[in-house]
Design goal:
Elements: H1 6-18, E1 26-27, H2 28-33, H3 35-45, H4 52-63, H5 77-97, H6 105-110, H7 121-152, H8 154-162, H9 167-178, E2 183-187, E3 192-194, E4 197-199, E5 204-208, H10 209-212, H11 248-265, E6 266-271, E7 276-277, E8 286-288, E9 290-295
Antiparallel strand pairs: 1-9, 2-5, 3-4, 6-9, 7-8
Helix pairs in contact: 1-3, 1-11, 3-4, 3-7, 4-5, 4-7, 5-7, 7-8, 7-9, 7-11, 9-11
């Protein structure tokens, strides 16, 4: 399914890059990093293009409302969540009444059942909410961090230019380096020992992915950005198992296509000012990243 999306993703990347001003400073986050994942995930879900900005705003308010720039009116993060859940419920109702000949996720889910059971209304809404938020916020963070890291490590960019076959490995290193989601937490169900620490049933455990991705026991020179790193057992998508990220393949596709198009268009991408970081202890976000592109072979 993800492989079939590549032409659509490449079209979106091409149209966004074509709209940036050549030789002039622009905000990569606002021009490319932020809209690309939302356009892709919005099309996949079946959100009309005219509603993409609304979904993006609600996503920002629900996940990044700790930052004043994205704080929802009245400071109600739950209000943004409720608005998006209401929207997806109405979209599902509309598609059920007028199914047409569509292959988007809303259409698939409204007509799907497993062993005779359909998704409940709440599960349907929450499924789409998760896809829209997680599929947008994390990938855009990885894009911005990747461009910043390649600017700060120009020898790595030149390695990519000399050998584009390194792009898949570069994608993995960007994901490790960016660690878009800083942590998740879980409740322990059984007793265990982890790293010399005793964990008892009922304990709340924070899984700090950003720390794991800099673990010197797993990564030689963990603070070095190295697109040839192999192996690269990062946990940017979680550590595997039932909670592995559903959108991992899609995120990898978007990052790969973006790198391919950047290499094809530009001699290099220059970061012209400091990155503005998101105020969050959950997302390792970059809100704004001023850049200037330099065309050439």
């Amino acid at each position: 399914m993800v492989t079939r999306l590549e032409p659509r993703v490449r079209h979106q990347v091409d149209s966004l890059l074509a709209a940036t001003p050549p030789g002039e400073v622009f905000d990569l986050a606002e021009a490319v990093s932020v809209p690309l994942p939302m356009r892709v995930i919005g099309d996949l879900i079946g959100v009309p293009p005219e509603d993409h900005d609304r979904i993006l705003r609600w996503s920002n308010e629900s996940l990044a409302g700790t930052d004043a720039e994205y704080r929802p009116p009245g400071g109600s993060i739950l209000g943004a969540v409720a608005a998006m859940l209401t929207y997806f419920g109405e979209l599902g109702d509309s598609r059920s009444q007028n199914p047409g000949d569509r292959e988007d996720l809303v259409s698939v889910l409204t007509g799907a059942s497993v062993d005779g059971h359909r998704l409940s209304d709440l599960r349907f809404r929450m499924f789409l909410f998760l896809l829209a938020v997680a599929g947008s916020e994390t990938t855009r963070t990885a894009i911005s961090h990747g461009v910043l890291a390649l600017h700060e490590n120009p020898e790595q960019w030149q390695s990519l230019r000399r050998d584009p076959s390194l792009i898949p490995a570069a994608v993995e290193e960007i994901l490790r380096w960016a660690s878009p989601v800083l942590y998740f937490r879980r409740n322990a169900l059984t007793a265990m020992d982890a790293g010399g620490q005793r964990i008892e049933p009922g304990d709340i455990v924070s899984l700090w992915y950003v720390s794991a991705n800099r673990d010197p026991g797993r990564f030689p020179s963990p603070d070095r950005f190295d697109i040839s790193r192999d192996p690269n057992p990062h946990v940017a998508f979680g550590g595997g198992g039932p909670h592995f990220c559903l959108g991992a393949s899609l995120a990898r596709l978007e990052l790969r296509v973006l790198l391919e198009e950047l290499l094809a268009r530009y001699h290099h991408v220059e970061v012209t000012g400091p990155a503005q970081r998101l105020r969050s202890n959950f997302l390792h976000g970059i809100k704004h990243l001023p850049v200037r592109t330099h065309p050439g072979a």
